[in-house]
């Protein structure tokens, strides 16, 4: 997610699990690939392998370091076709929901990681019609328990 240019280069990376809609939002100081991919690796390496088997990125330059994701934590990497946002519809929908707390005019440099976690908690604890009125957190937990049996 990008913000007004006059506010600087800070941006947000949204990671959304496809089935449960479980969301992790990461604040980045800029779009350089090493720090962005480093934060992604840190965020998902604690998950069980079944929860991080693959990840799909858009064609942004911040994801150029994708081979490190595969090498360091074994996550298969895929990319959307150019100019095809419908191929990551769940992420686009989640970004629209997150804009409630992260409008384009917001200066996110002053936001802390705890602020980002609180936004994730709101998103992950809101029941969704597409999940049978369960929350993303509930569905994610159920899927992980099911996969670990």
Keywords, please?
149 residues; alpha+beta; Nucleotidyltransferase, domain 5; two-stranded antiparallel sheet; two-stranded parallel sheet; 4 strands; 37% helix
Notes on the structure:
By secondary structure, the protein is an alpha+beta fold. The chain has one domain (5-148): Ribonuclease H-like superfamily/Ribonuclease H (Nucleotidyltransferase, domain 5, 2-Layer Sandwich). It has helices spanning 33-44, 66-73, 89-98, 113-124, 136-148, and strands at residues 11-16, 23-28, 54-57, 76-79. The strands form two sheets. Strands 1-2 form a two-stranded antiparallel sheet. A two-stranded parallel sheet has the order 3-4. The longest helix has 13 residues, at 136-148. The protein is globular, with a radius of gyration of 15 Å.
Outline the fold blueprint:
Layout lengths: L10 E6 L6 E6 L4 H12 L9 E4 L8 H8 L2 E4 L9 H10 L14 H12 L11 H13 L1
Parallel strand pairs: 3-4
Antiparallel strand pairs: 1-2
Q: Briefly note the CATH topology name.
A: Nucleotidyltransferase, domain 5
Distance between the termini: 36 Å
Spatial ordering of strands, largest sheet: 1-2
What proportion strand? 5-15%
The computed structural class is alpha+beta
Low-confidence stretches: none
CATH architecture: 2-Layer Sandwich
Give the mean pLDDT. Answer: 91
How can the largest sheet be summarized? 2 strands, antiparallel
Radius of gyration (Å): 15 Å
Order of helices and strands: EEHEHEHHH
Assembly state:
single chain
Tally of helical runs: 5
The rough form would be described as globular
Find the count of extended strands (DSSP E, 2+ residues): 4
Question: How many domain units?
Answer: 1
Helicity range: 25-40%
CATH homologous superfamily identity:
Ribonuclease H-like superfamily/Ribonuclease H
